[in-house]
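Q: I'm building a small set of examples for a reading group on sequence design. Run inverse folding on the following structure and report the sequence directly after it, with nothing in between.
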């Protein structure tokens, strides 16, 4: 099945929740991001989950922050990228998600994943990281049973019932086979930051696996860091990227050409026209139903993220739309 788009996908934003601000400043700042994005016309906002002081992010409980955002916004959809399902109790997750979905008038987009291999993190929850895929599959089956109104003893029901939430589940898939299974189950596909050709292959496997009559849901997540120029942005971003390269030799080689690393990760950076050109070259753009800009690296503050949101809304999104209109496609 082919589902290449001729129009601009829905534009969203994402954060893994970084910054050195105290939690009492950071958490309200996250709500400010959603309010600003809502006012700027972003279609969705997504929060990543990271447990126990991970270097990758600071938020263990995205549904709580999204509940606060729900009461302060009107139309923006509220997503998770991703809740680490093997570390969750399916019934409690279903209950929390159902309450949030009711509070937000059906705006929750429930992104789920297995989580990476982290022995200490999984041990803290009494789980075996070696079995995370099997655990994920079993818990996802139970979660969907509960959300569909089944899976509970006689006389018990999910309260509130969260009608429609089961149709707003998304999965992160790391192989074409898993992407195809995600499609066959009618779930949305989350494409992470990474090699462009690999990400497009996942999207193609997903599209090929969609049952007839099922609408595609593909969300591509890409870093976006507009600034003075590509060299300035690369220099600013490189320390944040380097901290996640564990091998010193690899890090040293990569430091000689940070542009190559950032481009390989499909990070869009430089002047707004540079970002527009980079987005247009992304092979996943034609098949994405949602294109989501990650607006924080490890050292990006909330004020900086707010400025990035505004630049995307005011300069980058209109330029992308104008390009499509110039080529005869509806924006």
């Amino acid at each position: 099945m082919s589902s290449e788009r001729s129009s601009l996908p829905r534009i969203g934003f994402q954060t893994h929740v970084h910054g050195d601000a105290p939690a009492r400043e950071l958490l309200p700042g996250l709500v400010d991001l959603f309010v600003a994005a809502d006012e700027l016309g972003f279609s969705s906002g997504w929060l990543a989950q990271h447990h126990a002081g991970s270097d990758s992010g600071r938020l263990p409980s995205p549904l709580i922050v999204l509940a606060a955002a729900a009461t302060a916004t009107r139309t923006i959809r509220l997503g998770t990228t991703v809740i680490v399902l093997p570390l969750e109790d399916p019934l409690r997750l279903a209950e929390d998600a159902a309450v949030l979905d009711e509070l937000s008038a059906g705006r929750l987009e429930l992104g789920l994943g297995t989580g990476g291999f982290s022995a200490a993190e999984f041990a803290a929850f009494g789980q075996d990281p070696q079995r995370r895929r099997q655990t994920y599959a079993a818990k996802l089956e139970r979660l969907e049973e509960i959300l569909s109104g089944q899976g509970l003893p006689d006389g018990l029901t999910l309260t509130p019932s969260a009608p429609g939430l089961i149709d707003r589940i998304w999965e992160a898939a790391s192989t074409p086979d898993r992407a195809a299974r995600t499609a066959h189950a009618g779930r949305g596909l989350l494409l992470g930051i990474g090699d462009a050709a690999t990400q497009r292959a996942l999207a193609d496997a997903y599209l090929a696996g969609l049952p007839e009559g099922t609408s595609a849901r593909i969300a591509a997540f890409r870093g976006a860091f507009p600034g003075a120029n590509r060299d300035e942005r690369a220099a600013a971003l490189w320390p944040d990227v380097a901290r996640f390269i564990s091998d010193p030799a690899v890090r040293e080689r990569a430091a000689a050409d940070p542009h190559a690393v950032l481009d390989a990760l499909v990070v869009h950076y430089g002047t707004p026209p540079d970002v527009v050109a980079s987005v247009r070259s992304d092979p996943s753009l034609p098949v994405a139903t949602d294109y989501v800009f990650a607006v924080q690296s490890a050292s990006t503050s909330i004020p900086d993220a707010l400025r990035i949101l505004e630049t995307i809304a005011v300069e980058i999104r209109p330029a992308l739309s104008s390009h499509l209109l110039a080529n005869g496609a509806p924006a």
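The chain has twelve helices and ten strands.
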